[in-house]
């Protein structure tokens, strides 16, 4: 979660939706004094990726009055990105500190196993559908339209537009190459509400 008192917004930030790019190249530029909560404020959750429900409890007045936005991403693509981020970009020490102190086994799963067996308790809200994670927001952007949607948000909050580019790219093949018919359908069922609400299709 990122908060700006200067521009009166709350960014409800799910994992692997371009959040790091927006933070570094956009938010930090328009408001260098933006606020990120620390873990002591939200025990049991990753402070970078707090659910809307948790944020509302922590700052109810700002939650109701500030401009709230989030971003969604094709769920099949996002899960591939999460899987490779955890397998390639994170260490066992980080895993045990941030996610689960006793169990490093999710790293050792194949992608098929990850899709079939993943447990959101191990992943600190990262696997929640966006409709559940972000709640009711004033604007839901799409990672697929990152620059245009960030520009629109800047217009809404009265901030100068920034060229945010695209960083933190994963090192993997096109997401469609990792799915079987079975795992594709598992994701389709698990994220059915998001797929319908945000008009996503596999391969598009």
What's a concise summary of this model?
This protein has 204 residues and is α/β, with parallel strands linked by helices.
Shape category? globular
- Ranges where pLDDT stays below 50 over 5 or more residues in a row are none
- The N- to C-terminal Cα distance equals 28 Å
The assigned structural class equals: alpha/beta
Backbone CA Rg? 17 Å
Overview of the molecule:
Strand 1 and strand 2 form a beta hairpin. The chain has helices at residues 19-30, 52-58, 60-65, 75-88, 92-98, 111-117, 130-134, 146-157, 181-190, 192-197, and strands spanning 2-4, 9-12, 35-36, 67-72, 139-142. A five-stranded mixed beta sheet has the order 3-1-2-4-5. By secondary structure, the chain is an alpha/beta fold. Helix content is 42%, strand content 9%. The chain has ten helices and five strands.
Give a topology summary.
Blueprint lengths: L1 E3 L4 E4 L6 H12 L4 E2 L15 H7 L1 H6 L1 E6 L2 H14 L3 H7 L12 H7 L12 H5 L4 E4 L3 H12 L23 H10 L1 H6 L7
Parallel strand pairs: 2-4, 4-5
Antiparallel strand pairs: 1-2, 1-3
């Amino acid at each position: 979660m990122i908060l700006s008192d200067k521009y009166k917004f709350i960014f409800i930030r799910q994992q692997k939706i371009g959040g790091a790019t927006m933070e570094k190249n956009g938010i930090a530029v328009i408001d260098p004094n933006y606020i990120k909560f620390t873990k002591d404020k939200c025990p049991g959750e990753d402070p970078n990726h707090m659910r809307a429900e948790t944020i509302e409890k922590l700052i109810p007045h700002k939650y109701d009055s500030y401009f709230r936005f989030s971003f969604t991403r094709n769920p099949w693509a996002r899960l591939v990105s999460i899987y490779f981020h955890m397998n390639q970009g994170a260490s066992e020490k980080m895993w045990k500190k941030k996610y689960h102190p006793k169990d490093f086994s999710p790293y050792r799963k194949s992608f098929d196993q990850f899709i079939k067996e993943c447990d959101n308790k191990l992943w600190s809200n990262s696997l929640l559908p966006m409709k559940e994670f972000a709640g009711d927001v004033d604007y839901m952007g799409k990672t697929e339209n990152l620059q245009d949607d960030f520009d629109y948000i800047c217009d809404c909050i009265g901030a100068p537009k920034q060229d945010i580019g695209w960083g933190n790219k994963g090192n993997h093949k096109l997401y469609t190459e990792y799915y079987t018919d079975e795992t594709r359908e598992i994701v389709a069922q698990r994220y059915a509400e998001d797929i319908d609400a945000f008009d996503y299709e596999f391969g598009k």
